[in-house]
């Protein structure tokens, strides 16, 4: 029932596609939020396993086989403070929670952040791991993701996990090819529908592997500045679903 609702229901992707065709940014924003709610419910039902089989050639990569929650603790590089919402007291560090998200313990500890108008990126060493992972995008209406293939939203192709949501988390492209993602660099997307095209969708929709959303601490994202530091990144839930293959 949930899957049918996602595809054909009033809260689902067909309604979202119609909003895109109408070029109505407000309807697109509401449609995205509704569709993501259904996706979150589906993720709860599918845990602890994935709803598809991973191709054998990609089994060598670390992966999260279900739902996970990660908490980032971020500190200002200049000793300034973060201002939480609802009139809370300023603090010298702030926490952000993401789901679904995978992180190997310690992988992002001490990593600095850099900011653009549209994103907050982890400034990790791109060649640290010595390999790239294939771009992975799950199109709506399909049962398996596409690899090393982008989508064309102009032709009505939409991903199940959209980029056009404030606080979406995606893997950065490899420096060598847009068909691959960097295993060590991700970004928070600061989506602004006022600067979006394609009926309110981002121009980059369907071009990156989106794998998480900011659920706690969204108000912190615009306060982050280049040079701020990820003090720690911890997997709060889903440790039993994190698979880290042994490298030979």
UniProtKB/TrEMBL annotation:
Residues 165-231 form the PPIase cyclophilin-type domain. One of its GO terms (molecular function) is peptidyl-prolyl cis-trans isomerase activity. Signal peptide: none annotated. InterPro entries: Cyclophilin-like_dom_sf, Cyclophilin-type_PPIase_dom, CYP37-like. Transmembrane segments: none annotated. Pfam families: Pro_isomerase. It comes from the Eukaryota. This is PPIase cyclophilin-type domain-containing protein. It comes from Dioscorea zingiberensis.
């Amino acid at each position: 029932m949930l899957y049918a609702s996602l595809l054909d229901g009033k809260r689902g992707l067909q309604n979202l596609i119609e909003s895109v065709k109408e070029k109505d940014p407000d309807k697109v924003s509401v449609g995205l939020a509704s569709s993501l709610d259904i996706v979150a419910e589906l993720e709860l039902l599918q845990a602890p396993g994935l709803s598809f089989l991973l191709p054998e050639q990609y089994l060598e990569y670390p992966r999260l086989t279900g739902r996970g929650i990660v908490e980032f603790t971020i500190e200002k590089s200049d000793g300034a403070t973060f201002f939480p919402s609802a009139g809370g007291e300023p603090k010298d560090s702030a926490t952000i929670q993401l789901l679904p998200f995978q992180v190997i313990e310690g992988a992002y500890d001490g990593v600095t952040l850099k900011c653009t108008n549209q994103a907050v990126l982890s400034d990790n060493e791109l060649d640290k791991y010595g390999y790239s992972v294939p771009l992975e995008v799950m199109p709506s209406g399909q049962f398996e993701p596409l690899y090393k293939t982008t989508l064309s939203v102009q032709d009505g192709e939409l991903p199940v996990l959209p980029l056009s949501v404030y606080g979406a988390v995606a893997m950065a492209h490899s420096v060598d090819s847009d068909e691959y993602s960097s295993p060590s660099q991700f970004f928070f997307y600061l989506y602004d529908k006022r600067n979006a095209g394609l009926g309110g969708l981002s121009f980059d929709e369907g071009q990156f592997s989106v794998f998480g959303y900011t659920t706690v601490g969204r108000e912190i994202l615009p306060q982050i500045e280049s040079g701020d530091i990820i003090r720690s990144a911890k997997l709060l839930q889903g440790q039993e679903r994190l698979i880290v293959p042994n490298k030979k």
